Amino acid sequence: MVTRRTIRSLALAGALTAVAGVAYALRWRRNPSPCPYSQRVWIDLPRPVISRSGLCELLEPQPGERLLELGPGTGYYTGTVAEAVEPTGEVHAVDVQRPMVADLRTRLRERGDDNVVPIHGDGRALPYPDDSFDAAYLVLVLGEIPDPERALAELERVLKPGGRLVVGESLPDPHFVTRETLRERAEEQGFQFENDVGTRGSYFARMTVPPSNGD
User: Fold this and answer.
1) Which one, 15, 45, 115, 208, has least CB within 10 Å?
2) Which CATH number goes with the domain that contains 111?
3) Mind listing the pLDDT tens digit for each residue in 97-119?
4) How many structural domains does the chain have?
């Protein structure tokens, strides 16, 4: 028999759990960091609004292009984009966590994807020369970087003139970046905002590097 005391205890326990969860999310938001490898199960869950097909529709990857993915994690989007640039294109997948890079490398090998280059690196100091890529994308990543402005500046640097950048964001990610904040930060780093798709709480946004003089 369930007593009133038991019900009150369960309710209190539930309330404390909720409060603890909110406190953890707020602390995580104040201290940007990537999703730990130990919690990678969460980044493999379906993403209905910021889907793989939705990313490709806005990014428009073309056969033969060289693309950059920042923060691929275990590769939720990587294989789909890599397939779109076949047979001669490639995707460089840069992640700051070595375990994520190793996991992605294993998954790619098992799937037979040979046009993806997993790289351990920091988005604030990308290991590439200027004008290295035709396009780049990052999903649920920008808010996890301690200096997002520096990361955007690096993306602008390694993209060719006219290069495309797609950023995906979605709640309830504690590091969620609003459209307005993203556009302001990106334009400060030299990007031209083009358009976005989705909802207020889950969207993809596309911007480009302005063509150089004479192009």
Assistant:
1) 45
2) 3.40.50.150
3) 999 999 999 999 998 889 999 99
4) 2
Report the Cα 176 to chain-centroid distance in Å.
11
pLDDT, tens digit (0-9, with 9 covering 90-100), for 28-49: 445 687 889 888 888 888 899 9
- Separation between Cα atoms, residue 198 and residue 67, nearest integer Å: 23
Do 24 and 118 lie in one domain? The reply is no
- 50 & 25 share domain: no
Q: Do 200 and 134 share a domain, yes or no?
A: yes
Give percent of the chain with pLDDT exceeding 70: 84
The CA distance from 10 to 143, in Å, is 35
**Highest mean pLDDT of the ranges 15-19, 42-46, 137-141:** 137-141
In the sheet that holds 202-208, the strands lie side by side as: 116-120, 90-95, 66-70, 133-139, 159-170, 202-208, 192-199
Residue range of the domain that includes 128: 38-208
Claim to verify: residue 145 and residue 184 sit in the same structural domain: yes
Residue-by-residue DSSP string for 135-187: EEEEES-GGGSS-HHHHHHHHHHHEEEEEEEEEEEETT-TT---HHHHHHHHH
Q: Is 48 helix (H, G, I), strand (E, B) or coil?
A: coil
Strands in 11-158 per DSSP E: 66-70, 90-95, 116-120, 133-139
Looking at the domain assignment, is residue 214 inside a domain? no
As a whole number of angstroms, the distance between CA 27 and CA 158 comes to: 32
Please report, as a single letter, which amino acid is at residue 39: Q
